[in-house]
């Protein structure tokens, strides 16, 4: 499974996530602050 490094543009939260979490974060926003994010905020780790 692919792992991504997420960085929130709003609060700066960073951390590794899997594909399911990546998809949910793009759909619902940052789990910490709710800022909208796009796939560009995830780098393949």
Question: What does this entry look like structurally?
Answer:
The protein has one helix spanning 19-28, and strands at residues 3-7, 14-18, 42-44. The radius of gyration is 9 Å and the shape is globular. With 45 residues, the chain is an alpha+beta fold. The chain contains one helix and three strands; from the N terminus they run E-E-H-E. The model has no long low-confidence stretch (mean pLDDT 96). The protein has a three-stranded antiparallel beta sheet with strand order 2-1-3. The protein has one domain (3-44).
Q: Total domains, how many?
A: 1
Major sheet size, sense and barrel closure: 3 strands, antiparallel
- Compute the separation of the termini in Å: 11 Å
What portion of residues is helical? 10-25%
Strand order of the largest sheet: 2-1-3
Protein name: Zinc ribbon domain-containing protein
Pfam families: DUF7560
InterPro entries: DUF7560 (IPR055982)
Tags for this entry?
3 strands, globular, 1 helix, 45 residues, 3-stranded antiparallel sheet
Quick summary:
With 45 residues, the chain is α+β, with helices and mostly antiparallel strands. 22% of the residues lie in helices and 29% in strands.
């Amino acid at each position: 499974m692919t792992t991504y490094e997420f960085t929130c543009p709003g609060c700066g939260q960073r951390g590794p996530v899997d594909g399911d979490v990546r998809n949910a974060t793009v759909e619902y926003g940052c789990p910490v602050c709710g800022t909208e994010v796009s796939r560009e905020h995830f780098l393949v780790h």
